[in-house]
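Entry type: protein chain
Record version: 2
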Amino acid sequence: MGQTKGIIAAVVGLLIALTAFDGLYIVHETEQVIITQFGDPIGDAITQPGLKFKIPFVQKANFFEKRYLEWDGDRNQIPTKDKKFIFVDSYARWQITDPLQFYQRLGNERGAQSRLDDILDGETRNAIASHDLLELVRTSNREPDTTGALMLEVVEDSLQDIQTGRKQIQENIQNMANQRAEELGIAILDFRIKRINYVEDVRQTVYDRMISERNRIADEFRSEGQGEASRINGEKERDLARIQSQAFREAEIIRGEADAGAAAIYNAAYNRNTQSRNLYSFIRTMDAYTKTIDKETNIILSTDSDFFRYLNSID
């Protein structure tokens, strides 16, 4: 009898534990829950966090994210309006806004990702096929800020006006996709074109054309620079010759004035008296000796030569 009661108590305790385990569930702050009974939704979505209760073994709690979710599109080859084939890589952020509708239409996040592939890829193709490549690359028109006439010409040739721009095209894709996704219980919060590139068979051709264009611009700038350098060097040589000529002229004037002053001093000293004149004559003659005669010089003098006069007076 006691053994039977123990078994019954154990069974009851197990049933209570299983009931509590399956009947109680926790909703976190990042989650929202839809309760289903035999596969059919029961009541509204549970969005408040906390400990919740459901009928055990009959009802099921289906958890969905409250946070922003990521969608990363495939890299697709799409033709533009001006018939240029490009690869487009895009991404988006989305959120479950109506869990009940989301569960009924999509079931889970995997189904949502698959549906977003259809919606966003389709709208991206439609938008790109409706615009030229220039509209997809640039966002707005801008005024060239340059001082060189050559660069101004290059910029004006390459920067054409756009009507829509990349930013507006992305917003249009997001708006059109939200219209299609509204009945699915989700909202696309942001859409961006991550990368645009040419297909492989034309990319190298485009790069070569860009390199050739930039080399042409560089050659024109280099030619202008060489011309400017030649002009500057010419002005430098002209200014240098003028400065040297003026300096030589001033130096000759100063030298002439100095020689005139020295001659005036010599004349004044010479004319002072006979003794001074003789001394002056002797000094000038001795100075001439030192400049014209050295130990290896042989000279022949006449008896009436001024040189011989002083040499003969030594005796």
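Comment: Residues 69-198 form a domain with the Tetrahydropterin Synthase; Chain A fold (CATH 3.30.479.30).
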